[in-house]
Amino acid sequence: MIGKLNHVAIAVPDLEAAADLYRNTLGATVSEAVDQPDHGVTTVFIELPNTKIELLHPLGENSPIAGFLAKNPAGGMHHVCYEVDDITAAAEKLKADGLRILGDGNPKIGAHGKPVLFLHPKDLCGTLVELEEV
Ligand SMILES: CC[C@@H](C(=O)O)C(=O)SCCNC(=O)CCNC(=O)[C@H](O)C(C)(C)COP(=O)(O)OP(=O)(O)OC[C@H]1O[C@@H](n2cnc3c(N)ncnc32)[C@H](O)[C@@H]1OP(=O)(O)O
Ligand SMILES: [Co+2]
């Protein structure tokens, strides 16, 4: 069911410093910061030859990444995102297999304008997984 690795997300306490590090020290192609109010985060995307890195910083008072950054104040790897062809079919199969879909259970439009959803980290080897329909 899952296809390509779309991105690996890293939560960071200082988005500008992290973007500078990837741009100037690691020599990567780094986007501008974009607020994602529907997701409670600000994102910066880094283009790599075979995938993307998503830098995440909390936006607003109820950011879903606030707890993670409180536990990991220096930042850390937050989620991996796998591509799927049909997110509704994927969600139905995963629910039938007992995995918990986070939020209201329905896909939302993600940073690339495509439907995304998240699966509980305790159901997937301690790793928060995002699915993106491509
Ligand atoms: C920009 C849009 C989109 C895109 O297109 O790319 C994005 O990427 S948006 C990214 C931000 N959005 C989300 O992460 C949405 C889904 N996440 C959530 O709903 C929450 O973050 C969460 C997974 C439910 C965790 O919320 P939290 O408030 O931290 O809850 P708990 O404290 O109850 O955590 C439960 C349990 O899970 C552990 N945990 C939390 N976060 C992670 C994580 N990222 N990876 C692995 N494990 C995680 C947490 O430590 C708790 O464990 P215990 O302490 O053992 O109970
Ligand atoms: Co993501």
From TrEMBL:
It comes from the Bacteria. The keyword GTP-binding does not apply. The lineage of its organism: Bacteria, Pseudomonadati, Pseudomonadota, Alphaproteobacteria, Emcibacterales. The keyword Chaperone does not apply. It catalyses: (R)-methylmalonyl-CoA = (S)-methylmalonyl-CoA. The gene is mce. It comes from Emcibacter nanhaiensis. Its EC number is 5.1.99.1. GO terms for biological process: L-methylmalonyl-CoA metabolic process. InterPro entries: Glyas_Bleomycin-R_OHBP_Dase (IPR029068), MeMalonyl-CoA_epimerase (IPR017515), MMCE/EMCE_epimerase (IPR051785), VOC_core (IPR037523). One of its GO terms (molecular function) is metal ion binding. This is methylmalonyl-CoA epimerase. Belongs to the methylmalonyl-CoA epimerase family. Residues 4-134 form the VOC domain. Keywords: Cobalt, Isomerase, Metal-binding.
